[in-house]
Amino acid sequence: MYWHRKILLVLVCTLFANCATILATQPSTSEIANALCQNETAAIDVNFPASRANNCQIKSATSLTITIDPENKPINSSAWYAFRVTPRQEGMLSVNLKYSHAKHRYPPKVSTDGINWQIFDPLKIDKLSEDEIRMHIRLIDRPIYVAAQEIFSVGVHNTWIDKTEKLHFVSKSILGNSIEGRPLYKLEARTNPNIKKPYVVFVGRQHPPEVTGAMAMMPFIETVLGKSNLAKNFRDKYDIILIPNMNPDGVTNGNWRHNMNGIDLNRDWGLFTQPETQAVEKELRRFENGGDEIVLFLDFHSTWRNLLYTQSDAEATRPANFTKNWLSAVETVINKKLGKDVYKFTREQNPNSGQPNSKNYMYMTYGIPAITYEVGDNTDRKFIELAAKIFAQEMMKNLIEWDAKND
Ligand SMILES: [Zn+2]
Asked: Domain 154-406 is classified in which CATH homologous superfamily?
């Protein structure tokens, strides 16, 4: 199923009552005074979290050009943008999106409330070149958000964290602070603190534009923390650590890739030069010799298509063969329950190259399966969620079985 056939995207934050407060829909007068540019038809501003548009030039009463720059160079081509168009009158506005250092990547999404998003009609987009498109936007009586993906702000993360913390066996703590002082939250699920159990560790959002990874992480974790007998049995055997948002500054500043020191956090594992990775490393020390046990590490990301970067089968892990068994079970269940073509994924056996990313570091340090869970940028949102639940269920089954064999 192609992304453009699914017009309505409902952002996961519709689940949360106070979500509407995350994006103020009506910009204040001062925000409009701080507009990047304005003409008699509309004003363009970036005065909200996760925004990015670096320059704006009026071309005529009904057309303008917005330039999008990365936070730093060189950088991966994850050309994030997010801006708001406040109409002065109804009618059509042509907006050129021009990238200074990348190709156009993300099909624009639009929203009037910051909660419900739609893919902008591809028929109203002209592709002028690899690095420039023109959108023909119909202005209505309200401001319109335009973004590379649904805006998944720090506020959305934190609302979900607070909701999850309400489970009686979950506790929230702060591992440290980002460069700009935002807390790096950890959730830990332990159903019986008197019993020492092995841990499964999850992290997310090292790379800010990778929203579809976060859209998978939440239903995955909710399944593991859920009320099913499978989840209860799993939590009898295992404890869970989750660090949902490792790069809150990058998310808030609309970064393409880096933290505020211009560092790719997923190239800093083992080096641990940044406050964000240092805070996580400090937490992971509990798994050093004689401490707690870790059996699995998953890191949620997004890329061009659904895939999982794993160890190769030639690289021994403990549990042995987990990855192979897990992913083949997931594929069978997805095909059976969801259908053959709705969530295709590949396993990319990706032997340790020495690159200091989370997967390599966690495998090298602990000998465990350490996996990057990548979700396609344009994968149908409904199937991201449904597939994530199946990935979670099969992970739990596999680890429960392994535990039984090890007794
Ligand atoms: Zn990534």
From this structure: Zn peptidases (3.40.630.10)
